[in-house]
Amino acid sequence: MNYDRILIRYGEMSLKGRNRKHFVQKLKKNIKFILREFKNIRIESEWDRMYVQLNGEPVEPVIHGLKKVFGIQSFSPAIKTEKNIDAIREAALHIVNQAHQPGNTFKISARRSDKSFEYDTNGLNHAVGAHILINVDDIKVDVKNPDINLIVEVRHDAVYVSGEVFQGAGGFPVASSGKAMLMLSGGIDSPVAGFLTMKRGVGIEAVHFHSPPFTSERAKQKVIDLAHKLAEYSGSVKIHIVPFTKIQETIHKEIPEGYTMTSTRRMMLRITEELRQKHEGLAIVTGESLGQVASQTMDSMYAINNVTNTPILRPLITMDKIDIIKIAEEIDTLEISNRPYEDCCTIFTPPSPKTRPRLEKVMAFEEKLDWQPLLSEAIENTETIIVSERRNQQETDVEDLF
Ligand code: ATP
Ligand code: MG
Questions:
Q1: Which residues are involved in binding ATP (predicted)?
Q2: Which ligand is nearest to the CA of 297?
Q3: Going by CA atoms, what residue is nearest to atom 22 of ligand 1?
């Protein structure tokens, strides 16, 4: 007897009242996609949980995949048995035998949604617990802090026995709440901002500005590698790579030095806004954090934000760098972000950008030139690539989640 399924609990998603059906369907689709290499898997969803039936597929890699699916609160590999006490005892013993090491402690946590079952929860705890004590050497009961917590759930259709609870990624299923454009640099912050936004159920398409030959292929590769990491949570991520050299050179030539940085950000945002419209996103996401650098003061954000009415999501806005770094470590993007390649902004950053730029001033400077043809040209020459969570995946094999 082996684990034949994985029981998935939804958590926060359950609070969503009327939207629930939509969320459950999205979660099911996302799980299917993440586990698509396991051809025999079947997914069954119920009101408050889902079952991934393994049908002979290996349990470990499936667990690994499920840990990154947003919308899952927790999950447990489980054995489904008939509703009779002998079958339950047999499944419980099997699980304990697999997990047990000498000296371990255990407890039985029985739950019953089918109240007509012949044993109540107390009765189940005793009946199953006694069977374990008789058949396993060197094991004791500890109800407070057991090494093995056997969960026996009696439901209307069957009984589910599981021995381990894995923490899920939490949040909402990716792409259950629309799509946003993530301004993805090669830095530490923007991938973390992308991760946190995806966790709230938002689908992400990345926009990256690069300025060859001032920025190298390796700098571009860094962004692709970061997108790979984010794709582990959604299956795939599209990146729009915008050629930004001409615009930066023009800014450098036309805009007074103290304002080049402000103007650069405004042009980036204008292009991102046009891409958002083109690809039907509902918001723009950045990795900005208040006060971190000159472009992220209140005055700067006011002057930069003025080019669009679209909601800009800034998940890191009040966070300290140290906490952002912690998340970057957890999602394994820190090492990639720390690679030393130049970013298009740092190269053109003046020695002392204005930390308190004035909106009227930057608008007056920009008015001297019609920027639209330059912006349109950059958008026309934007290269779009799709990266999947698997490194060697052919681009054409990747299904789009959105
Ligand atoms: P990050 O670590 O995300 O690069 P940062 O602290 O270095 O952020 P800035 O360089 O001021 O801050 O960038 C602020 C935000 O602007 C970034 O988080 C990102 O969302 C966006 N951004 C900056 N450079 C680029 C770029 N080359 N392409 C796309 N977006 C960018
Ligand atoms: Mg940066």
A1: 183-184, 208-209, 265, 287, 296
A2: 1
A3: 185
pLDDT value at residue 10: 84
Hey, where are the domains in the chain? 5-167, 179-401
Handedness of CA 333, 235, 207, 344 (dihedral sign): positive
Distance CA 303, CA 269 (A): 11
pLDDT tens digits along 325-359: 999 999 999 999 999 877 766 666 777 777 889 99
72-91 tens-digit pLDDT: 999 999 999 999 999 999 99
Q: What is the pLDDT of residue 164?
A: 87
Low-confidence ranges of the chain (pLDDT < 50): 393-402
- CA dihedral of 297, 302, 306, 310, whole degrees rounded to 10: 80
Measured CA to CA, the distance from residue 154 to residue 136 in angstroms comes to 24
Q: Domain 179-401 sits in which CATH superfamily?
A: HUPs (3.40.50.620)
Pocket of ligand 1, beta carbon within 6 A? 183-185, 187-190, 207-209, 286-288, 292-293, 295-296, 343-345
What CATH number does domain 5-167 carry, 3.30.70.270, 3.40.50.620, 3.30.750.24, 3.30.2130.30?
Answer: 3.30.2130.30
Residue 14's pLDDT is what? Answer: 57
Q: How far is the CA of 100 from the centre of ligand 2 (A)?
A: 49
Looking from the CA of residue 242, the nearest atom of ligand 1 is: 28
Q: Which residues pair with 180 in a beta bridge?
A: 204, 283
CA of 186 to the centre of ligand 2 (A): 7
| 261 alpha carbon, closest ligand | 1
